[in-house]
Every structure is written in structure tokens, then in C-alpha cells.
Amino acid sequence: MASITASYPWTTAPLIVGAPMRLISGPSLAYEISAAGGIGFLAAGTDVSTLSESLSTFKSLLYTSPIGGTSSDVLPVGVGFILWGADLDLATKALSELLEPPAAVWLFAPSSSEELGSWANGIRSATNNKTKIWVQVSCVADAIDAIKVAEPDVFVIQGADAGGHGRYASAGLISLVPELIDTVREYYGNLKEGDTSSLPPKFIAAGGIADERGVNAVLALGADGAALGTRFLAAEEAVIRKGYQDAVLKAADGGNSTVRTDVYDKLRGTIGWPEGYGGRGVINLSYRDAVKGLAFEENEKLYKVAEGAGDKGWEEGNARMTTYAGTAVGLVKKVAKAGDIVKELRGEAAVQRI
Ligand SMILES: Cc1cc2nc3c(=O)[nH]c(=O)nc-3n(C[C@H](O)[C@H](O)[C@H](O)COP(=O)(O)O)c2cc1C
């Protein structure tokens, strides 16, 4: 079977992927990850209105410093969509206008299987099948549903440790990756010839990976590569407030210091997630007060004050601002260039972590 890097010819094994993080993964971060031989994803998230502009900024970076090994068919970048909140018509319109569409899209959190199917079909037809369909799932059942409606080219297997949104009911990568891969392979093995047009998919693991040891671990479990969000929060190119980034650098012992919850979504008004999803972030006063039973309106007022206080909203001891990050926060110790992080993750030791 061809390795995953064969489908993305500018990439180097082991494949390192920059997860699309809403509002944070912009063109510079995505470009630097791809330029270092990984795949950077732009985060469209729930708002597709700025996608064309982000892609054109990415293209100008590419024009200024071309990435070796790219084809003229696709751009060496992916785009992530949060399906329950994003507009499929706008997305397909933006993608169909491109001579070179992105190499991949990363579809996450559909409100139904049908919605996932519509996105996969819509994007395949808008891009003449040039753009590969990646689907992020956090349990085996969702993977089987996804095969039936979307025939993903790549599964992003999201484990319980992942920062940002994911399913409350999910396992850690050490059990989830092998079980999900076995189940999907068995499913494809049981299909009669002619039942499906696509090859069995590839698998990328995400959630709690922050250094070369984590990358090697998921490769040993059978994954074809690793996707990271939390580690790239400490990339120079991340679009992130200094207060947020500092809070990530300071946090340690992520099983204790982070939690998956809907408290932050409610406080910042990012509501509408399908049932069963919560966002993992660093525990701060907003969460503690909610657990203590402070009335939502009071907590919201305090949150708004923190929002108005800029970086002070993340100040140690007084922090209230949402700080989405995964359990690997304790392994993220310094800010570095995204390209150096990619090289270090591959074992090329470009960054000294401590
Ligand atoms: C700050 C932040 C924002 C995120 N935003 C998105 C998003 O917009 N779309 C998405 O599919 N996943 C999002 N995720 C989840 C990632 O896709 C990925 O599953 C996760 O970052 C992997 O775990 P890690 O953070 O431990 O590396 C986000 C994660 C973080 C930390």
C-alpha cells in the first residue's frame, strides 16, 4: 500500500499535520507547517466568509517562497470546517472558484450523517475530486457512519486528550487508534468488490501528541501520521493573544489542569454544538465558579469584564478567558517557529524543548 506521503508529494515521513484551530490557524501557520514538509490546515471553522481571503494570502506566501514537490493540481494546504455551523454552499462556491483547490479538507462535528455526506459529495464535485476528504472522528461508531456516507480518504482519529472540541465519550489514542483501524479495515475487507470506489482510508492520530515520543507512539499503534493542535498554540505564527499563549506555556499536568466542558462555549456564546461535544481547555475561575454554582449571568458578567481586559484576562490567579488546550499542555514549554516544531516532531531535533 502506498504511504500517505505519496498523496501529498511535498511532505516528508512521518507526516506531521497542523490541526485547523478556529481563529488561530491562519495562512502563516499553515504555510510554515507545509513548507517544513507537513500539512498545514487553515481553520475556516463555522465561518466560511473569510476563506477566499485566507487562501489567497496562503497563495501569495507560496508564490513568494515556493514549496518544493508541490503539483500544479492542488495547493499544499488543507482547510478545516466545523460542519454544524458552516455554510456548505458558500464553501463549495469558494472552492470551485479556485484553479488549484486545497489538497484536503478536514470535516468535523456534523449535526447528522446526512450532513457529513452532503459536505463530502459537495466538495468532491466542487473540486473535481482533486481535494481529499479528511474526517475527524472520536469514536469507532462515528468512523463506520462516516464510511457509509462520505468514504473518507483519511480519518483523523481524535483521542480524549485533544484540546478544543471533541466528544465527551471518547477513548485515549492508545486503545482508540488500533480498534478504529482494525474495525475500518475489517469493514472494507468485508465489502464485495465493486461496492465501493475508494481505497481503504489512511489514519492520522490527534490528541495529546506534543513531541517526537508521541509521534512515534501513534505510528507504533498503526497511524500513518500525527496531527497536533496544542503544540502549535506555541508557534510564532499562531494567531493567538499573548495572554493565551503564556497560559498554555505555564499550564502543566494536563489531566489536572484541563477539562472538557461546555462552560466556556456558553460564556463566549459559541453555542450550537451537536450533543455530546465539549471543549477541552485550561481550568480557570470561569470554570471553577460555574462548578461552585455561581449564577450564569454573574459568571457571564465577569467573563465580559475579563474579555475587555486584554491579556490580563489570562493573568495567573485571575484568569477567566477561554484557553482551549489539550492534556499535553505540560509538554509545551516554549514558543518556536512552526517549521522548527515540525522538524523536531519528525525527530530532526530542530527545537530544544527546555
Ligand atoms: C485551540 C484549539 C482550537 C481547535 N479548533 C478546532 C477547529 O476549529 N476545528 C477542528 O476540527 N478541530 C479543532 N480543534 C481540535 C483539533 O482538531 C485536534 O483534534 C486537537 O488539537 C488535537 O489534540 P491536541 O490539541 O492535544 O494536539 C481545536 C483544538 C484546539 C487546541
From TrEMBL:
Keyword Repressor: no
Organism from which the protein derives: Arthrobotrys conoides
Database matches in InterPro entries: Aldolase_TIM (IPR013785), NMO (IPR004136)
Entry keyword Membrane: no
GO MF entry, a single one: nitronate monooxygenase activity
CDD domains assigned to the protein according to its UniProt record, in alphabetical order: NPD_like
A Pfam family matched in the record: NMO
Keywords: Flavoprotein, FMN, Oxidoreductase
Protein name (database record): Nitronate monooxygenase domain-containing protein
